[in-house]
Structure formats: structure tokens, C-alpha cells
């Protein structure tokens, strides 16, 4: 009963956080590990649980996504598919013990990216910096590999990548971030499911809770004008979880 309650609360919180500011994986992934799900399977299940929220967000930004610009949308999506497959494949061949050792570093990196990403994107947007299409796609590919391997902090890393390659329209950037998250999640989840890495029982609990939390978060997002305090809360969660995983006994 306690495990079920923790997973429901984590799912509700994650869905709401993703709808308002992102960072929901910082709740669902540790909650699944706490519930006894092996880290690799917890990562796969948390990625699947976040997928419905990504779809809803991408649909909300549908008019902003394909406004032209470089690289073309088809090239970005194609790169995400290839990178996501590469990242998911890399996860499949990663030993459980090695992944457990890498997790705290991934959480720490995602938290730092979440903390510094918005300022970084704004600075790049003001500079009007532009990157050649091949270099831009190479950067998107690297971030896509990360997204296929580990879902935590993916959104802000995509935004940072779009800023680096010269995008300045934040609405289009957010729309592309959501669309790319959908593509990466579908590719990753399909790979994980074929490999038997989805905990279907816990997915049902967390996924439904995420969907409910996403609806609640969307309602709250209309009333929240300043998300600075919420972002600080998410950063604190990320740091606490990273420290907790660093202190977690091996195996």
C-alpha cells in the first residue's frame, strides 16, 4: 500500500512539474527505484510514463513547430530517431552495475543543465549566433543519444541545443522540444518494450498518475506567472536525488 501511494504521488507530481516547468523524471525515476524496480527498468518505465504528457504538449505547440528555419524539421526528426535508437541500444548493452554507477552522475548533469539551461538559451538567443546545418544536426544527434539512454533533463538539454544552433523563437523551440521528446520517447520505449525492460504493473500506476498530474499542472500553469520558486524546488530535488544515489550501496 505504501509503495502504491508513493508511486501515485510521484506520478502526480511529475506530471504537474512537466506541464509547468519540466523535471518530472526527478520524481518518478527515484520512486520506481525505491519501489524495488532495477535502475535500467526504472529508467525505461519512467520514460514511458512521461510519453502521454509529451504528446499533449507537442499538440499544444503544433502551430509553432514548423515555421521554417534551419535545420529543416524532417532533418531534426530523422536525427532524433537515429540518435534515440543509438542511445536505447547503448542502454540495452549497459550492465546493471555500470548503469547504477552512472545514474548519480546523469542526475547531477541533468540537474545542472536544468539550473543553467534557461539563462544559457536566453544569452544565445540574444547573440543571434547561428551554426551550420551539419554541425547543428551533430549536436542534436548527441543530445538525442542522451535522451535515448536516459530521460532525465532531456527537455532543457534540447532547448540548450536549439539555442546553440541559433534558434531564437522560444515558442518554436518549446514546440520542437516537445515533438523531439515524443519522437525520442517512442523510439526508446519501443526498444525497451521489445527487450522486456518495461515494468507494466508500475507503469500503469505511474503513467495514469502522470496523466492526471499533467492535467492539474496545465490548469495551474495558467495561474503561475513566475516559476522561479518551482524551478528552485526541482533543482533541489535533483541535487538531493543525485546525492542519495551517490550514497546508495553498490548492487
UniProtKB/TrEMBL annotation:
Primary location group: membrane
GO annotation, cellular component aspect: plasma membrane
UniProt KW Hydrolase keyword: no
Superkingdom of the organism of origin: Bacteria
Annotated localization: Cell membrane
Transmembrane segments: 40-61, 73-93, 105-125, 155-172, 179-198, 204-221, 228-247
Topology within the bilayer: Multi-pass membrane protein
Keywords attached to this entry: Cell membrane, Membrane, Transmembrane, Transmembrane helix, Transport
Keyword Membrane found: yes
PANTHER family given in the database record: MEMBRANE TRANSPORTER PROTEIN YFCA-RELATED (PTHR30269:SF0), TRANSMEMBRANE PROTEIN YFCA (PTHR30269)
Family, as annotated: Belongs to the 4-toluene sulfonate uptake permease (TSUP) (TC 2.A.102) family.
Name the record gives this protein: Probable membrane transporter protein
Source organism of the structure: Rhodobacter xanthinilyticus
